[in-house]
Design brief:
The strands form 3 sheets. A 7-stranded mixed β-sheet has the order 3-4-5-6-7-8-9, with helices on both faces. The protein has a 5-stranded mixed β-sheet with strand order 11-10-12-14-13, with helices on both faces. It folds into 2 domains: 129 residues, Fructose-1,6-Bisphosphatase, Chain A, domain 1, CATH 3.30.540; 112 residues, 3-Layer(aba) Sandwich (D-Maltodextrin-Binding Protein, domain 2). The chain is globular. Helix 1 packs antiparallel against helix 2 and helix 5 runs parallel beside helix 6. 33% of the residues lie in helices and 28% in strands. It is of the alpha+beta class.
Amino acid sequence: MVLAEEVAVFITQERQKFDLSQVEHKGKNDLVSYVDKESERKLVRGLGQILSEATFLTEEKTVEQTEGELQWIIDPLDGTTNFVHGIPAYSISIALAKHDEMLLGVVYEVTRKECFSAWNGGGAFLNGNLIRVSPIDELSESLFGTGLPIQNFEKKANYLKIIGELMESSHGIRRIGSAALDLAYVACGRCEGFFECNLNSWDVAAGALIVQEAGGVVTDFSGGENYLVGKEIVAASTVHTELLGVIQKYWS
């Protein structure tokens, strides 16, 4: 998507002169900057021109948050903490929903200039090339992605038990720092699964569709479909059932 590429150029330019004095805090460990906000404004303006009747659900709330038949769901800079610290793993996430059904999703990895995209029923792509989830079907041969919560630590012990078992029973776990990228990596087969809690719709809407269109399975921790607003997501290839079993052993 040209718009995502244009905003990625802005993010890249701002990173070159960014310093920690420009960081704001939405919460104790929840960072934001003018780059997030201005990127969101650029996306909102551009998407509004593409589909003027659609409403917006955005992380930084730079535009009125309203519901409608069609809604853009946007995370302008997923992986802000990585961006702030100069770690090159952050992305732009854009999804279009019709009520609760995702119509299209785009995840643009800024530093690698990789554009993951999908539309409902139309397949999933990386820079225009068709992608599929990994063919690996054994947990023991799988690599997993996860994220560590930055708030709501009540179930920290349970979460660490899940990670502990997967450390011993798989090829390992990666913590990239951008849920949208984790999902995109599942879609293209770089890892076999991803799970995380305490996420929001803008973190997962685009990536979840891309995984599904690439042949993967996406659920919440209960195995249901409440991953968009339920703050729990498990996305995986054919090892989804095994991965979900490990999660459910410790997560009530």
